[in-house]
Design goal:
Helix 1 crosses helix 2 (21-33). This protein has 67 residues and is mostly helical. The protein is extended, with a radius of gyration of 16 Å. The two termini are 29 Å apart. The chain contains four helices and no strands.
Length: 67
């Protein structure tokens, strides 16, 4: 199991790799500024979806993703 420090370090590394240094810092600032309740967000995230519709969306995303 990874430590909290390991997870933070890896998360920052990935953010910087994908977004670049400036945008990664902006992303972190945006997250820190917002009062965001992940648990409440998850309760309503897929409210109007079925397993079948999510599977269809996932297949579509996979098919349209260029490797």
């Amino acid at each position: 199991m990874k430590t909290d420090t390991d997870i933070r370090f890896e998360g920052i590394r990935v953010l910087m790799q994908v977004l670049g240094t400036v945008e990664a810092e902006r992303f972190i600032a945006l997250i820190n500024r917002e009062r965001f309740d992940y648990t409440e967000w998850r309760k309503s995230q897929w409210q109007d979806e079925t397993v079948a519709s999510l599977a269809t969306r996932a297949r579509s995303l996979r098919e349209n993703t260029v490797d």
